[in-house]
Each structure stands twice: as C-alpha cells, then as structure tokens.
TrEMBL record:
It catalyses: (6S)-5-methyl-5,6,7,8-tetrahydrofolate + NAD(+) = (6R)-5,10-methylene-5,6,7,8-tetrahydrofolate + NADH + H(+). It is an enzyme of class 1 (oxidoreductase). This is Methylenetetrahydrofolate reductase. Gene3D superfamilies: 3.20.20.220. The keyword NAD applies. It comes from Limisphaera ngatamarikiensis. GO terms for biological process: methionine biosynthetic process; tetrahydrofolate interconversion. PANTHER family: METHYLENETETRAHYDROFOLATE REDUCTASE, METHYLENETETRAHYDROFOLATE REDUCTASE (NADPH). One of its GO terms (cellular component) is cytosol. Its EC number is 1.5.1.54. Belongs to the methylenetetrahydrofolate reductase family.
Length: 303
C-alpha cells in the first residue's frame, strides 16, 4: 500500500547514517481495559522516545490474530510508526495463510515477522495444520511469492531449544529462511553477548549479509527471567542468576539492576557493530526509557 514504510528501508537508512535502529516489541493486551491503558499511556510514552519501528506479537495457535492486525493498523495510523505484525504457521492451511496475508495487505500492513510458531496450549510439539506449512522458511517463501512485503525472521543466538542437532544446525536453518527471502533477523533474548558474536560471525562466514538485530530484555526480577528463559530456552549466566536471586523480593532494586545490566549489554553490542537494538518491552515503559536515556538514544525532546 502506498505510504507504508518498509522496515528494510528504515534499517538501510540508519546504516547509511551510521546510527543503530531502535525498535520495540509489544503484545496485544488481554482485556479492553488493558488495551485502553496501552493506547492512552504506554504506547504514547514509548513512541515519544523515538523508536524506528515496532512489532506486535501473535498469540499461541494464532489466538490473537485479529488483535495483532488491529493493533498494528492502529499504531501505524495513529502514530505514523512503522509497525510489523507477527505471523505464524500454526493452525492455518496455506489457503488460510494467503487470506490472512491479503487481509494484512488491505489494512496497510506490509511488514511481517514470519515465524513457525509455538504449539497451542496443551500441546507439547509442533504439528502442521492440514495443508499447512511446517517451517518458517516456507512462510517466508509464500510471502515473497505474494509480493510487496518486507519480511523479518527470528534468530536464536544459543540455538532453537527444539533443534536437537545443535545451534550450528539451527543457524543453518536460519540461513535457509534468509535464502528464501527474509530481509532481516531479530534475535531471541540473550544475556551473554558472546553468544551473539558467535552467531553473527557464523552467519557472516556463511554469506549472510542482512541485518542481525539483537533482542534485549529489560530485566524486572528473578521470577520474570526464570519464567521467560524456561519458555525460550535462553541461558542465564551464573553470575547474573546469583545477583537476581540476591535481589528477589526487592522490586525496585531488581529493576534498577536490570536497567544497569541491559545498558552495559547494549553498549557492548553497539561498540561491536550491532545494527540496532530490539527491546522486549512487555508493554512497560520505565526500564526501556531508562536504558535508552543511558545510551543517549532517546529522542531529545522526550519527557
């Protein structure tokens, strides 16, 4: 659709300026009250920081499909912020995926994060839908064949937790997604930058040249990190785990430590040439704002 800003162009512009791209991930609020709070308070305060783009997640089994598209459309119209909808293979045939993709196009949504997706609640393993897709690279190929879309994919600096062959095999699978037509990669959260450097260098040696954007989690506390890493398989370095355990029960101290840790992590990533930073905001403002201010990346006129 005319007027829709493609994220690959945003990334190319930032690279030409020698500046990192900053982006935020949001999830669809579960209640009408939560949605009202998101649009009235959370989103405006984060947009004031001057992000380059944002993404909106997609619930397990496609459970938030309509909400995801509605949020992306509304963010683009209300805030003129380039926005990306997550899309998974779960629970949809190819014909249904084509209809969802065309619906996104009609709504002016041309930036898509193509994912295989997690199994629906209660299921332990991924099973493709009848006449559906099995791998994310197939969804990338479908989007590229349909034309007009900017396509992002997910990368795992520590390897996908379901890839039994190990992280190098998983990174080869990621290259297949890029070869199928992906424009950029956003990584899963990680806490040790050595994992990102090894991931990046392996892919560069394999000929990958698209931006590999590190995903950063502003830590709120031990329980949050423990829960999220169990879900995604990320490793918590022992020193970090011990400090979070010491701060358990101290909400303010945990949040301050999380800001400090992420600031140091981001500084090192940027010094090493990372093309941007993608913050898993969890629909919260304080920590992301503090980190960007520490880095000197918050828009100067933000309150």
């Amino acid at each position: 659709m005319e007027g829709t800003v493609l994220i690959r162009d945003v990334l190319a512009r930032r690279a030409s300026q020698g500046r990192p791209a900053v982006s935020f991930e949001f999830f669809p609020p579960k209640t009408p009250e939560g949605e009202q709070q998101f649009f009235k308070d959370v989103l405006p305060r984060l947009v004031q920081l001057g992000p380059d783009f944002c993404s909106v997640t997609y619930g397990a089994g496609g459970s938030t499909r309509e909400k995801t598209l509605t949020l992306v459309e509304r963010i683009q119209k209300t805030h003129r912020l380039p926005s990306m909808a997550h899309l998974t293979c779960v629970g949809s045939s190819v014909a249904q995926l084509r209809e969802i993709i065309e619906q996104a196009r009609r709504r002016g949504i041309l930036n898509i994060l193509a994912l295989r997706g997690d199994p629906p609640r209660g299921e332990t393993g991924f099973r493709p839908a009848p006449d559906g897709l099995t791998h994310a690279w197939q969804l990338v190929r479908l989007l590229r064949e349909m034309g007009g879309f900017c396509i992002g994919v997910a990368g795992f600096p520590e390897g996908h937790p379901e890839c039994r062959e190990g992280k190098y095999a998983d990174w080869d699978h990621l290259k297949a997604k890029i070869d199928a037509g992906a424009d950029f990669v956003i990584t899963q959260l990680f806490f040790d930058n050595a994992d990102y450097w090894e991931f990046r260098d392996y892919l560069h040696r394999a000929g990958v040249r698209v931006p590999l954007i590190p995903g950063v989690l502003p830590i709120l506390g031990f329980q949050q990190v423990d829960r999220l890493t169990r879900l995604c398989g990320a490793r918590v370095p022992e020193k970090l785990r011990r400090r979070l355990e010491e701060l358990a029960g101290d909400e303010e101290g945990s949040m301050a430590f999380g800001v400090e840790y992420a600031t140091r992590q981001c500084e090192e990533l940027l010094r090493g040439g990372a093309p941007g930073l993608h913050f898993y905001t969890l629909n919260r403002v304080h920590s992301t704002r503090q980190i960007l201010e520490n880095l000197g990346l918050a828009r100067k006129d933000s309150p």
